[in-house]
Amino acid sequence: MKNRRTAAVRYAVLAAGAAFVLIGMLRSEFEEVLQKAVKICLECIGIG
Known about the structure:
Blueprint: H1 2-26, H2 29-45
């Protein structure tokens, strides 16, 4: 019984994570994240 519940929770968390990734992709949030990452990297090496 405990193994079934654990598996159900794992699959629910996996499904929720996949749903949030899909929502983020549909809203084009990856572009904003990429821009911030580039800016932070350039600041770290002293160019930006």
